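Example 246, ligand 2-phosphoglycolic acid.
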Amino acid sequence: MRKFILAANWKMNLTAAEAQDWLNHFTSINPNKNHVEFRLYATSVLLSDLVRTNVLHIGSQNVHPSDSGAYTGEVSIPQLKSIGVQSVLIGHSERRNDFHESANFIKEKVDASCNHSFPFILCCGEDLKTRENGTHLSFIRTQLTSGLSGLENNHVPLLTIAYEPIWAIGTGQTATTAEVTEVHTFIRAVLLEFFGESGTSIPILYGGSVNSSNAASIFACPQVNGGLIGGASLNASNFLELASSL
Ligand code: PGA
């Protein structure tokens, strides 16, 4: 049976009490899907509590490449590891665009994660203008090349890719299965160029307005290894409903 990752990206949502309710709900439903790895990417302030409940894989939405220092408001990999956080999102379009994170800074985060053997999801995806120009594949190649250059085959087990077209994030406008298939096939080819045969084992997730009406058709694409879910992950039953098609 194919393995899937279903990852909730809560973004800057939910209080500690709401997060606890979500977890109670999640555990009470028991999806019974052994081939699905459920993950939860939460804001830093919630991470300790979430890890302590030991219910599912807990990841951070952000990280700083340095181990420590004068970086007010930031969080480091050693700090995340010290409380049992299991992975991190790197290069989400909201970090790239709203917080002006450059390709170089994202690369530093990738390298820091590799140096600490800390698993990460590297996000990529084009904006609407790039899609309309028809240059989305070369845009994605540039993002991947800049993020992955210098990585070795021993880093492959740390790596997951998420393809998230910016025009589909939070807009209700999902990519068609043909669009998803085109880009995921392309990303796989780039990963094979980088890592040879071991590139076949790197999961490629789709994200961007996945919901209960479109999840089944997106997850049925053979090139899709799971989803990164924003809006539809804020309610535990909605999130788990997405797994019903897996
Ligand atoms: P969305 O967000 O599901 O609300 O579109 C996805 C994401 O940004 O990871």
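Summary: The longest strand covers residues 36-42.
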